[in-house]
Every structure is written in structure tokens, then in C-alpha cells.
Specification:
Layout lengths: L1 H5 L23 E4 L3 E2 L12 E2 L6 E4 L54 H19 L21 H4 L3 H7 L5 H13 L3 H12 L8 H18 L2 H8 L6 H14 L2 H16 L5 E6 L6 H11 L7 E8 L1 H7 L4 H13 L4 E7 L17 E7 L15 H10 L5 E7 L8 H20 L6 H21 L12 H10 L4 E2 L3 H11 L6 E6 L2 E6 L2 E9 L1
Parallel strand pairs: 5-6, 5-8, 6-7, 8-9
Antiparallel strand pairs: 1-4, 2-3, 9-13, 10-13, 11-12, 12-13
Helix pairs in contact: 2-5, 5-6, 5-7, 5-15, 6-7, 7-15, 7-16, 8-16, 9-16, 10-11, 10-18
Length: 546
């Protein structure tokens, strides 16, 4: 379990890093899919898939050109291999001629992850229509919606009848979301033959250099391949790209930090409520479970310096992992030195204490809380990485919340993505991931024009591996486990917390922040929390507890 936590990818928390370097149009890292032959060993549960290869690993992650080392289809039904890499700018054909793939229509499909019977029936009907369009009206589609070609099993024969020339002509008329869902359905049912054919179709539809949904589709397709070809830690090791040098990674994070408000929303809303909670405290101890560059606290130190009656003494404990250390190019001492200089310039008494470990490893003794300190705890996009009771009997997610409660904090701030992927089975989780990240990729695209290589690197290093992790991995190796605010409310309440209302001051601060971004971002004050929205989709929530 701890190993999987160490493998955490940059993710949305990569947005937190302040840009400190000029953008360097560096070469791309590529996933190359090497020569492979496969065979299915699907058991009664339909989840055990085995493959053999003369080259060992199917995925190699390197910085060379993605023009060699790939297998071309002998038959679309015989292999899930690709002759191109979704992580390459040469990734795939574009479908921009299809109006359904235009920027104005990549989000808001009927597949919103709803569990209602109506939405379920719509989804089943759409997938059935897609299957008929691919195979013709004579295909045998079961009433269960599982799309097995022959009841009780699947056969290769129907795929032998596919007219691939005709299929290539049909592709511009296909809906990319529908094909992705049909492919995920095939993977979910271990229908290797059908998955192979649909992956071949998807290869012609997705592109890391295309429209937002095409870019997302490239990474989701890679996740589906990884789910079939590998398992567990092998998947994550294979997909853990050879990390770029820290200055490049900082640049990629900085790009997203500037064009998307997700992290600025987090620390702006949290700082307002923290300042209110410690308004009259002479000594405060801030415990940040994802301190990254420490940028959030520069602003808070400056605000506290202006407090009537003088600033408090600030004791800051920063928890961090190896991912952020690599982006910084060094340990937490860099953060401590930076913040100490800021505090000194503002005449704020300051002490920094580093806890260089993953959050799930933190124990009470690591925090060094002193008597008389008003404790503040910050959880910015980090608790969803902690394994809960569905993954590990230690249940570090609830353990951390209870541990923090034992400190009797003045305030606890929580910011999380508003998505439900923690305990959902694979196919509903795929639908939720597609719906959520379609909105996110659309919001990234709305952030302004940028160099294609810069955007590909930023999306790959900071977002894509999170997506692949949610699709390809299970159990302890799946570290991206988001929950909705309602579930976080239940966890905090069970630990003895009461929700602290985020009022008009926090709302006003976030609204002022969003003036710098696209008009389709908005904030709503709801259920004593703040919801950051992209169009009609809740993207993140900020809440406070005491």
C-alpha cells in the first residue's frame, strides 16, 4: 500500500506549483507500444487477462521519436496493439470535421454518471445503436446490454466480417464518447475480440494534439489498453514516465497553474477562512498536508502581517512527498527558506518544520504541536489519495481525520475534486471519469492559446497519468479515489467535526479571482461550502470544519 502511495502522479495537485521558469519547448516523452501477441485467460469473473511478449514490458516510456518500434495491425480483431502512441504529437487522425467533436459540443453528453433508470436506459440504447452501426443489424446483442456477440460467450467470427474500409468511412460520423463507452463496456466484460476492434476504431478518432475530447480520449484509450495488458503495480511502473528534469516539470505545472483556477481557488478560499478563525490568536500552528511550493502561505503571511495589534507567531509544518520534491529540485528545506525570507520581510515571527513523508504515514508525534498553539490543518486535494476502508484495513483516510480531530484544531480546510470514483465498479467509474475530465480538458483549452508541445507535456505530466490510474488500476494501486462533498461531510461528522460555514467573504474573494479566467467558470455558495464550476459541472469544493 505504501508503495502505491509513493507512485502518486502529479495530478491536479500539480497545478499548485508556482511557475518559476520560462517555458522551454522541450522534447516529448512518449509511450511506445512494442511487439506483442496476446491470449485471453479470462476466468469466471472475466478479470484475469494474460499476454505474452518477446520483449518483456509492453510499454516503454522514453524521449525518442515515436516513429519506430510499433506493431501494425495484422487484424484488428487479433491484437489491441497500436501503431501510434497516444502520448505522441503524431498521435492519431483528427475528427475536427465532425461537429459533435467541436469545442462547443464536447461536454454535456447524456453520459453524466447519473444512476437514474432513465439515464441507464439512454446509455444502453446509445451503446446498442453504436454496436449496430459497427456490426450491422444482424449482430447478436444481448438484452443485458453487455454486447456479447453470442449469448454465453464471444467469438472472433463477427469481427472477421467487419469491412474496415467501410469502417474508416464511417468514423467521421461516429460519436467519440459513444465509442469510448462501448470499448470500456467490452473491456469490463473481458470481451477481448470486441475491445480490439473498438480500440482500432478509437485509434483513428483520438489525438493528443486534437480537440479537448480527442485529447482526453487518447489517454482514456491508453488506460483501457493498460487495463487489459497489465495489472497492478506493473501498470503503474510502466506508466510512470521517465520524469523530466525538475525545471521542465515545474514549467508544465506552471502552465496549468496559470491557465486554470483550480489551485488558486483552493488557497484563496482556505486563506480567507483561516484568517477569520485565528483573528485573535497570538500563536498559530498551520499543518499543511500538501505543501508543495508553499505558495499559499506567502499570501497568508502577508495578510497576518497587517493584522490590527500585530501579527501572530506562525509555526508551519509542511507534509510532502517525493513528487513535489522532484518538482522543486530539492527537499522541504527549500520551502522553509523561502517562507522564512517572506516572514522576515513582513516582521512575522516564523518557524518551519518539515515532515518529508507521504500523508498516510504521518503520526501524531511527527507534527510537534506545542501547548498554547491555535492549530490550523489544511487538506488541499490530498485526502482522496489516502486509502480508505475499501482498500486497506488501516483506513488511513479516516485515521488522519480522527488524528486531526484529536488536536482540537481551530479550523480544518478541505478542498477536493467533486467527483465520485472511489468505490465505483470499473464501468460506472469510467463513465464518471469521462464526464469529469471532459469538462476539465475543455476548461484547459479555454485557458488561452499555447504551444502544442507545451500543452501536451503539461497535460501528460500533470493530468494524463491520473486518468490512466483510475482506468487501469485497482485495489491499492489505484490511488486516485475521489469522493463527493456529501461523503466527506459524513467522514468528518463521524470523526466529531462540525461544518464551519464559508460565508460571503470567501465567496467574494473567489469571485474576484475568477475575473482573471474564462467567463464559464463560476462559484456557488451551497451547503455551507463553495463549489467551483465549469459551465454546469461542479469541479471542486472548498469546505471548513472545526
Amino acid at each position: 500500500m505504501q508503495t502505491s502511495q509513493k507512485h502518486r502522479s502529479a495530478g491536479i495537485h500539480g497545478f499548485y506549483h508556482q511557475p518559476v521558469q520560462e517555458i522551454d519547448p522541450y522534447g516529448l516523452s512518449h509511450i511506445q507500444i512494442l511487439d506483442k501477441n496476446m491470449y485471453s485467460d479470462a476466468g469466471s469473473q472475466g478479470t484475469s487477462i494474460s499476454f505474452e511478449t518477446c520483449l518483456g514490458q509492453f510499454f516503454t516510456l522514453e524521449s525518442s521519436s515515436a516513429t519506430a518500434g510499433f506493431v501494425v495491425y495484422d487484424s484488428p480483431a487479433a491484437s489491441i496493439s497500436s501503431n501510434r502512441s497516444p502520448f505522441s504529437s503524431q498521435g492519431s487522425h483528427s475528427c475536427v470535421s465532425d461537429p459533435r467533436h467541436s469545442p462547443e459540443n464536447i461536454y454535456g453528453s447524456p453520459f453524466s454518471g447519473s444512476s437514474s433508470a432513465d439515464d441507464s436506459n439512454i446509455l444502453r440504447q446509445k451503446l446498442r445503436e453504436l454496436e449496430i452501426s459497427l456490426l450491422g443489424p444482424e449482430s447478436d446483442i444481448t438484452d443485458s446490454g453487455s454486447f456479447c456477440f453470442v449469448s454465453g460467450g464471444y467469438q472472433a467470427e463477427p469481427y472477421a466480417s467487419w469491412d474496415w474500409n467501410q469502417m474508416m468511412e464511417m468514423i467521421p460520423r461516429l460519436d467519440l464518447k459513444h465509442v469510448l463507452l462501448a470499448c470500456a463496456d467490452a473491456v469490463s466484460n473481458a470481451d477481448i475480440q470486441r475491445a480490439a476492434g473498438l480500440m482500432h476504431v478509437l485509434d483513428q478518432m483520438v489525438s493528443v494534439s486534437g480537440e479537448p475530447l480527442q485529447r482526453l480520449g487518447a489517454y482514456m484509450l491508453e488506460g483501457l489498453r493498460a487495463r487489459l495488458e497489465l495489472s497492478g503495480s506493473k501498470i503503474y511502473r510502466a506508466l510512470k514516465c521517465e520524469a523530466p528534469i525538475s525545471s521542465d516539470l515545474m514549467t508544465y505545472m506552471g502552465i496549468l497553474y496559470q491557465i486554470c483556477p483550480y489551485w488558486k481557488f483552493a488557497y484563496t478560499s482556505a486563506n480567507v477562512v483561516i484568517r477569520e478563525a485565528v483573528e485573535y490568536e497570538p500563536r498559530i500552528h498551520i499543518i499543511d498536508f500538501q505543501i508543495a511550493q508553499g505558495s499559499q502561505w506567502i499570501l497568508l503571511i502577508q495578510m497576518l502581517a497587517c493584522r490590527p495589534g500585530g501579527p501572530p507567531a506562525v509555526h508551519l509544518t509542511g507534509v510532502d512527498d517525493s513528487q513535489s520534491a522532484h518538482a522543486r529540485g530539492g527537499g522541504l528545506d527549500i520551502v522553509g527558506q523561502r517562507l522564512s525570507k517572506v516572514a522576515e520581510s513582513c516582521n512575522v515571527p516564523f518557524e518551519f518544520h518539515d515532515v518529508a513523508m507521504d500523508g498516510c504515514e504521518v503520526q501524531l508525534e511527527h507534527l510537534r504541536v506545542q501547548p498554547g498553539e491555535a492549530v490550523v490543518v489544511n487538506f488541499p486535494y490530498v485526502l482522496h489519495h489516502m486509502p480508505d476502508e475499501s482498500v486497506d484495513t488501516w483506513n488511513h483516510r479516516d485515521r488522519l481525520i480522527r488524528m486531526v480531530k484529536s488536536l482540537s484544531p481551530r479550523i480544518v480546510t478541505l478542498v477536493e475534486q467533486e467527483s465520485n470514483t472511489n468505490t465505483k465498479p470499473f464501468f460506472p467509474r469510467f463513465i464518471e471519469t469521462l464526464d469529469y475530465y471532459a469538462a476539465m480538458f475543455e476548461s484547459i483549452a479555454a485557458g488561452g492559446s499555447m504551444d502544442v508541445k507545451q500543452r501536451i507535456n503539461a497535460e501528460q505530466q500533470c493530468v494524463a497519468r491520473d486518468i490512466v490510474n483510475m482506468i487501469a488500476c485497482e485495489e491499492a494501486e489505484r490511488v486516485e479515489r475521489h469522493e463527493l462533498l456529501a461523503k466527506w461531510r459524513s467522514r468528518f461528522t463521524m470523526a466529531g467535526f462540525n461544518q464551519y460555514p464559508l460565508g460571503s467573504s470567501a465567496t467574494t474573494a473567489v469571485k474576484d479571482l475568477l475575473k482573471e479566467y474564462h467567463r464559464d467558470y463560476s462559484v456557488q455558495e451551497r451547503d455551507w461550502a463553495l463549489y467551483l464550476r465549469w459551465r454546469d459541472r461542479d469541479m471542486a469544493t472548498s469546505s471548513a470544519w472545526r
